[in-house]
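Why do we care about 3D structure at all? Because function follows from shape, and shape follows, mostly, from sequence. That is the central idea of this module. The next example makes it concrete: a single protein chain, its amino acid sequence, and then its structure expressed as tokens.
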Amino acid sequence: MDMWQEEFENSVRHQVMIMIDEKLKSKKNQVNNERYYKSHNRNSFFNDIFRKYGAVYSIIFRQGLAKTNIQYAELFSLLKNCLPESCTSVEFMGDKGYIDKINSLIECFFNDNYISNIIEIRSYDHKKFKEMLDERITAFSELYSSLFKNLVSVTFLYNSCILFLPSAIEIDDLTMKKICALSGYIHSIGRSIFVRNLNNVNEDFFYSKLRTYLKNIYGNLNNIQEKEEKIRFIPFAYEDFLDDELSKSHSELDALKFHMEKLYLGKKRITEVLEDIEKDEQFKKTIKVGTPYNGVDGDVKQEHCIWMCMDCTPEYNINQSTNIVDTPVKSKNKYLICYDQFICNKNEYYIFNENMPGWYDNVTIPHTLMAAMINLTGINRLNNSNRKINILDPFVGAGTSYFQAAKFQNINFTGFDKNSTAIDALRFNKNFFEMDTQKIDRFIRLLYKLLIILNNNQEFNVSSLFNMKSIEENELWSDIMDDKNQRSFSEELLSYCEKYYSFFNKYGKNLIIDNLELIVKNVEEHFSYIFNRSNTLKILKFLTLKAVRRHGIPISRNRYDSKKALYIETKLLIKSIYRYRIAIENRNNCDGEAFEKLGLGLMTNKYSLSTHISENYNYNPIFQVGDCRKCIDSYSNMKYDLIITDPPYGFNTDEDIIYMSNLYKDIIKRMIEKLNRNGQIIMCLPATSYTGRNIEYFTQANIVPMQVIDICKNLNNPRSLKNDAHLNLPPKNFFKPPYYWESGKSLRRHILHFTFD
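And the structure:
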């Protein structure tokens, strides 16, 4: 008998013994015992198989179901593809479905007549009772244990979930750290202490679960030394995260907060429960009830931090016309979550998200979404092979897909874009993320000097602007540009702005040029001999684009001038870059062994260990300006394993419908033809505009899959699509493509995922 079968039988035995006890109690109390088993503890098997023998993890998402449902699909894909080869058959099932299935089997196999019979036998022959029960349990195990061996159960909540992993699935905390680090939407992961409907939680339940968990870490709680490091316990409460910086840094997790003064555990307010913890002799030696981190705690375990937060279950509504589940709403079923966080995703790209230094347009796919899209493909498993993985983005834009793909080794990346400014932004961002801390310091000083100029040359305290230490002016860029034949700085910048689409002429061109001429001449005067002219021009170019694109209308309406718009965008960029500067400096604290094993760095962070990924910039990607169809044709011998793209929606182009329709059809055909065997295509398409913009039907997820199927059939070498069947989750269509992504102010997107033979 293997370990899994033994655990399975022990869990069944425990539940059957509970059923026997319930039967005896019902007889003793002369209660009508027909269908008695409905009253017994139906969670016994579930708790044993997962909490006693397996592993239970709390997963906190950056964004909840109000934003997207791709975070669940990403999690399932990462889990499936980070496991050993022996566990690739893993399946997923909701916790209620799992409990119903196993209990229905147990209650069928050990029905009322059987229970009554063995109770009677036990009354006069205990040995025979044991033999009969063991024989029945063994038969049950041989029939059904394999069905549950690789079955992961999931508790679905609105902004988080609980993963229940059986011991047969070989996984450890280091693998979960890798999953967290690779993900787009996983904020943090920890060991689950409990998750329970708030109406069923009282102080005794809370103390019991907390003590049980602490015993697993410290052993006997009565023999703890005074000098033993404690574990922080932090209630994620609104009252404790009121400070602007703290509130902003956790704003994406606001839905998990609760009000301390309003939360009760049974009859006690949570504040009273926390006071009791601080007085209890066992808890005093193991737990440090804390507030938000404000420095280095020398007496706490850096790899642990117990959080208490609150979430709710989702309510699903199926759109009758499309048979697709609409965005779920929050139910009134509140759940209290307590977990020990051991890893947090600190991917530096998420500091910038859609506001990278190199920038060219508002319609940019977020890094979180792009990371999730790539993770859907299982590229991390392919990444472990020896061969190169070829990735194409035919509409690469500013390079979000490239930067997320660069997390992996053995990658060949190709990106095309018709807009030369997009490729300029991509290359600028690539150079920026390759900078070391010294170069980043110089970059910050450049922006800081620009900020002073925009502030009418008045010095100000930088720390008052964005909570950072004053920057020392120890070192300036030494490059001197003395080519007298080049156009003036202002001429280049203004010429560039005039060529960028038509928006420059829409938003008060004369007003903008008048302001910009003054600004850039001032910049030239200050920077001409101390800063690299090329880099200064580039960053000013991108800042000007942001200023005009984001502030063009208020500028044209004389609400404020372009100088103020530039000031706002420069200030925001300095904040982001300084946060990035701190983040990469923390890489020096990485765990070398973990980096060697998994290609990820583990750093000490505020509340637990954090991760960053080793960006693989050393290979030579292909970035090319031009029509993607011609570019693809020019690489006639190139085949791709993954094509991932966010094609144009028609918002910012002057092309007519015929041109755009042909573009979609042509590029879909070329993408399919250029795929290797088992190749995949991920597309992000518009679904609904919330700003009144028209979205042409041929760009939407309702028609594109039909085109894909039709093109597959009519190729010279026809191809067929594959379906992934490892999900067994209600509602049926919610965790399969098309996935949705919402920007409540502007746009809803659908994400399609195709796998070909």
